[in-house]
Write a structure and sequence with these properties.
Length: 178
């Protein structure tokens, strides 16, 4: 495994990506995005997660984060959000999506009938300020590159709103350690 995909510095800042299993588009409704946001808020308040940038796309999320136990924090985040998303899908009677999450579940994952997230978070350690700014720009322009909005700050589930509009209504982000 290449070093760029491992957490090597306990208090390092990392660019992480979590993808839904088989890139299934789950985050197409505000209620599912809000599950992710509430869990990030919880991790910030109780697990020491520092959130510097984020975007939620229809089938993946990107974060720039720091935590003393980042692997454990992200595992907890993914486990909780998976449980809540599955519960919401059941409540919304989204049988097709539930069927897809059941079909693509890894066979050895016996604790659940479904799998929401692909394994891993693909952490890339932020090595310098230039890399940090490049990753933030990548995150913020993701919805623009996908043709979803004309300007990054128009995407509700992105920290571009925090940076460009000083809008912390979705989630407050932490000050960059520059």
């Amino acid at each position: 495994m290449r070093t760029r995909y491992r957490i090597t510095e306990k208090n390092g800042i990392y660019f992480v990506t979590s993808t839904t299993v088989e890139w299934i588009p789950l985050f197409t409704s505000r209620k599912y995005c809000d599950i992710v946001m509430q869990s990030l808020k919880f991790c910030k308040e109780t697990k020491g997660l520092r959130l510097y940038a984020f975007v939620i796309m229809d089938n993946h999320i990107h974060l720039i984060v720091k935590a003393s136990e980042l692997s454990g924090t992200m595992a907890s985040f993914k486990k909780f959000t998976a449980k809540e998303i599955i519960g919401q899908l059941k409540h919304d009677n989204k049988q097709w999506l539930l069927g897809q999450l059941a079909f693509y579940k890894k066979k050895y994952k016996t604790e659940s009938d479904y799998q929401v997230w692909q394994e891993g978070i693909h952490p890339q350690m932020i090595l310098n300020e230039e890399m940090l700014m490049q990753k933030i720009e990548y995150i913020h322009y993701n919805p623009v590159r996908h043709g979803l909005v004309d300007a990054p700050e128009h995407w509700r589930y992105s920290s571009s709103r925090n940076y460009l509009l000083n809008d912390h209504s979705v989630i407050p982000i932490d000050e960059l350690p520059l």
